[in-house]
Amino acid sequence: MSECTALPTSQPSRVWTILVLVLLEAALVISWSAGFVGIRFAIDHAPIFLILMWRSLVSGLLLLPFALTLGPRIRLKDAAPQMLFGALAMSGYLAGFALAIDHGVPTGLVALIADMLPLAVAILSWPGLGQALTARQWLGSLIGLAGVLIASGWSLDVGNVPLLAYGLPVIGTLSLALATLLQKRSRTSAMPVHQSLCIQCLSAAAIFALFAWHEGGVFPVLAPGFIGGILWLVFVATFGAWSLYYLALKKSSPARVTAILYLSPPVTMIWAWVMFSEPLSWAMAGGLLVSLAGIVIVARAQKSTHV
Fold it and tell me: pTM for the whole thing?
């Protein structure tokens, strides 16, 4: 009798949970893609490390009052791992793809390399973490990657760019993959997102400040283009993307969350079309469908491993 009454209530709850997760992942893809466009816009108005420093600093300072007053008291032993995550996930990843764009690597190619994150997670996984991908997850990741190649390949132009510049987003992606695995296994993962994000932003700002000072100075450029670019990167690419990323990571697995980011390169092109009137292609539509197929395979494979 009790089993019969439990079924009707559990099914709507399950549907609602799936719906919330799908909406969360869709918002993550949009805001994550906005970061590439924001860097591309701001890079015309200021040096790259100055942009990254002020993006991280403003984000961290805006979050600081909430981090200190809302949620549990922040202890040093809890803050220290977040500083490490900030160095890896923010400093390493952001500097990798931003420097690549600054050196002339096409934005679509940077987004493509950055969204090989599921493969990077698999490479850096080991039995102690228990995060290795299954055969179906590998298949889904490779299909997703193929979709990105279809959607993004038409716009890629190697050009006269230093060979080392193409390795920068690879290093950044591996840095974020390592941070993703460590974050998932850390005992401090229960820290509220606004607190962990605040610590990571301020940690990244301190690192970027050293490079910005060496690059020419840490004072902001008082120009509309620089201010607008920083506000875009703070509220859309930082508060939006990174908050949604860590929220999704808490509700799902690294394999599924990072596989969702395969949609970032095509969506980045949509952002570029809206903001810079860049042309679109039928290849994008085909690539999106292939990427979605790969994501579905990864998601279902992840579900079967937890049954």
Answer: 0.72
